[in-house]
Structure formats: C-alpha cells, structure tokens
Amino acid sequence: MINIPIFGTFLYNILTQKKKIEKLYKEEYFYNKDLVTNSMIDTSYETSHSGNAASKYLFASMAGRYTTVNIKHCMKELNNSIFILIGDKTEEKEESARLYQEILPSIEIEYIKDSKELPQMECPDQFIEEIHTLLL
Hints:
The protein is mostly helical and 136 residues long. It has helices at residues 5-15, 18-29, 38-48, 55-63, 72-75, 91-103, 119-122, 124-135, and strands spanning 83-87, 108-112. The longest helix has 13 residues, at 91-103.
C-alpha cells in the first residue's frame, strides 16, 4: 500500500512537516539549539517540498537505510588525502569516522567544537578555518 504514490506522498508530507523539521534541528542536528533560525527551518521545509518533491527519494533511501552501504572495499584503493570534519558532540559520527580511519589510516579527522550533525551551519567560521588549514 505504501508503494501507491498518493500514500507515499501523504506519508512523506507528514514526516516533513515544519514542526518535525524544527524538532530535528533542535534535538538532533544542532548542539546549541538557540542557533537554529526560522530561516533554516523554512529553507529545509521549502527544499523538501519543491521540485516535485524529488527529495522524497533521498528521504526514502535514508529511511530505508539504503544510504548505509559498506564502502570498505572501495576505500582500500584510495591514495588521495581524505579529511573528515565532524561535530565534537556526535558520538555516533565519531565512531563512524574512526572506523573509516581503521580502514584507511591516512584519513585525518578534525572536530568542530560545540557542534553536532551540521557543523558547517552551527559553527561556520570554525568549519571554514579547519578547511583552510587542511587544504593549505
């Protein structure tokens, strides 16, 4: 029944309501929830519902855990620099970064202080500074 377009779209619209997006930002994505602005929420909401809601396909892939494919076999062949920037308040992401580093020890991990899932939005100056340091 979920494969019927009208039900799938209905479910997607329920799961991407503004109040649910705001809750995600404040409880999951940001360490300092006071930094979450209405503009961020509005932009996320608008992009999740524009372009014939093509973003629902990514959403469905993430919900179905299809974006968690094991890339271990591909990483062993890499010989270029890889940097992982993560918020220092995300234990799960830190574990994932360490697993990547175990596969490929040359991976460099840098932490963005006092941030969670979206350090580029929560601490943009520190994020850019880290990128600048890593690339130069």
